[in-house]
Amino acid sequence: MLVLPILATPALAQDGNERRATGEAALKRITGSDGRAVVDALGDMAPELGEWIVDFAYGDVFARPGLSDAKRELATVAALTALGNARPQLEVHIGGALNVGCSPREIVEVILQMAVYSGFPSALNGISAARSVFEARGVKVGEK
Amino acid sequence: MLVLPILATPALAQDGNERRATGEAALKRITGSDGRAVVDALGDMAPELGEWIVDFAYGDVFARPGLSDAKRELATVAALTALGNARPQLEVHIGGALNVGCSPREIVEVILQMAVYSGFPSALNGISAARSVFEARGVKVGEK
Amino acid sequence: MLVLPILATPALAQDGNERRATGEAALKRITGSDGRAVVDALGDMAPELGEWIVDFAYGDVFARPGLSDAKRELATVAALTALGNARPQLEVHIGGALNVGCSPREIVEVILQMAVYSGFPSALNGISAARSVFEARGVKVGEK
Amino acid sequence: MLVLPILATPALAQDGNERRATGEAALKRITGSDGRAVVDALGDMAPELGEWIVDFAYGDVFARPGLSDAKRELATVAALTALGNARPQLEVHIGGALNVGCSPREIVEVILQMAVYSGFPSALNGISAARSVFEARGVKVGEK
Amino acid sequence: MLVLPILATPALAQDGNERRATGEAALKRITGSDGRAVVDALGDMAPELGEWIVDFAYGDVFARPGLSDAKRELATVAALTALGNARPQLEVHIGGALNVGCSPREIVEVILQMAVYSGFPSALNGISAARSVFEARGVKVGEK
Amino acid sequence: MLVLPILATPALAQDGNERRATGEAALKRITGSDGRAVVDALGDMAPELGEWIVDFAYGDVFARPGLSDAKRELATVAALTALGNARPQLEVHIGGALNVGCSPREIVEVILQMAVYSGFPSALNGISAARSVFEARGVKVGEK
């Protein structure tokens, strides 16, 4: 598919209201109130980054139909564990994985798997992040 | 569960034959012949690394029951896309994702999502890896 | 500034046509035809990523008034040199830096500086990328 | 230009006194007292690292004429935001960017741009670093 | 060397008891009680990761004869300093390097060398980790 | 040790001739002709980076007495394997490790160990780099 000239772009992104509404809904469904807190905290300093999170990250990307919320969150937990330099965001998405129906077991399994792909330190630090989130929520890790 | 002293370790890892058998089966189921090729190519130089791949990465980690093959492979594709420095392995696991039943659409969606978590360059390079694998397999990306 | 509810969002992103137009203009101004080629090459596989590049990366982010094109491109060259895993994109943005008026000297200086912040290998590989771009364009590095 | 044998090296680095003087001046001009504190804190453990910071990082690299202090600091802020694993140094250089005349707006714009090149988590964590520095200095982010 | 079928695998890994015993001994010899604490802390959440540390990381990898403990620990300190995102593990291995007979001087030299290969920020943060460990142990850095 | 004012700097770096001589000698001893080739290839584009490699990386850092050449090269091989984004430099230093007396076995062991600290992909790609160097030199990996 080619990108068509401006005057004839049937595949243009949704208009602003639609992206905002879609994004707000996805942000809430996936991150509960954690994502809202992140966006609001950007307050006076960088409100645009908060808008991009809602409109682009959640409105344009996360809300797309081709991949379930559960798979999206597990993929995000994997990536942030592997990167090892984004602890706050990893905690938000471990919580998000729980919110969308991933079991604590599934979340732990994804992090454990990163011992193979990005090394044991990354997996240890990912488990530490999961512990913080699970303890705050009173969640226990079962067999499934 | 505490790690018990050696003389009383009921939870010890499987014995060598079991781990090898489990690993070989998982390696084949997930990577087809690609993983075998990687292990064999380690030849005279580092056969131990090949054994660890079979016994540990696949036998101990990948074959665990708490997370489906499909979710494991999507998580691995996400992590390797985010890391951006493991193209050969990313291609193996994009192929692995197809082998275990992920659709090309799901694989592309995971890579696209990395535009948010590790940046557009990582997503672009991940799409490039997926293109190589899909073209080699005559696979097309559909709606689902 | 708080993010207001949908029904009263005076700060909503531009509508689709505006973002597309802004993005296309910035993409051309900064990357010449290189960015167009990247977007077009996403073809059937991931046209959405191409749209996000135009609408978000260039329309929403790059075209913002608070930082000059020259400073934006030098910052991008620095970041991609430091990351060391995005050679194709680094080459596009070294070209982009030339397009927006940065001198070859300025570009080389930014890359050299990364020897301090991300190490000599990253700087060496960045210089290699700059060499490819400069040779293709017949550009020489002067004193300024 | 070839590197000539020792006996005929017209392009030798400045002698020790010159590099030290140049470095001390640049360190002060760019980092205020923050850089001095970093160097001094290396105290008994690694004074050589402090000397290399002054003589090499600032004397040989940062003080070079081909790129303005402002562009150097914005490039450094970009790279350290993208790397995401050097928070203390990122804060020093956000402060350095202010010291050499970059506006808070320009600094925020560079960090926001990293949402595209190294992902939203890196940009969020960069904004967090900028917040710490700006609050400590009573700085507000304006339009320019 | 090809990986032979299960029924004829003379090169199979040691059986479980051997790997566990080898691993426990290496863990203790190298990390003192620090490694034991890491393994135990994985408690209810991820005991498998603790077992993999003992059996694989120490039993299969670290205990191998072809490289001395001292060289193994210096290599690990170098890698974790360069990665810059694994501070807890870097501290464990700085301690491990001391345990196996590396001098504080050798450890500092490895970290300083990372200023060249992964940049000054990584070296500064590595020195900070070393300071924590040395102070806790009352260790001073001498000439050798 | 405090950094003293310019007028009384007994701990100043060596003067230019000394650093250059020390650096050239270390460059040759450790990298054979490979390092020379890297420095020379910086030619017209970035001769300063070549000078910094000789004077700083080798003259000031690598030639320091507190750590043997063998340990320095093994540490560098470990770090560059872990980083995974500096293949050309990793090859130079695998060669350097051979030049200073490390056995092929020791080099392979360091790379294998990175499977634990930075993941299997990094180790696989490091083995690939070692294979290139060993084959070019007709080197075989023995038991020690």
Automatic annotation (TrEMBL), chains A, B, C, D, E, F:
Protein name listed in UniProt: Carboxymuconolactone decarboxylase
A molecular function GO annotation: peroxiredoxin activity
SUPFAM superfamilies: AhpD-like
Top-level taxonomy: Bacteria, Pseudomonadati, Pseudomonadota, Gammaproteobacteria, Pseudomonadales
Pfam families from the UniProt entry: CMD
Any coiled-coil regions, as ranges: none
Carboxymuconolactone decarboxylase-like domain segment(s): 47-131
Cross-referenced InterPro entries: 4CMD/NDH-1_regulator, AhpD-like, CMD-like
PANTHER family associated with the record: 4-CARBOXYMUCONOLACTONE DECARBOXYLASE FAMILY PROTEIN, GAMMA-CARBOXYMUCONOLACTONE DECARBOXYLASE
Source organism superkingdom: Bacteria
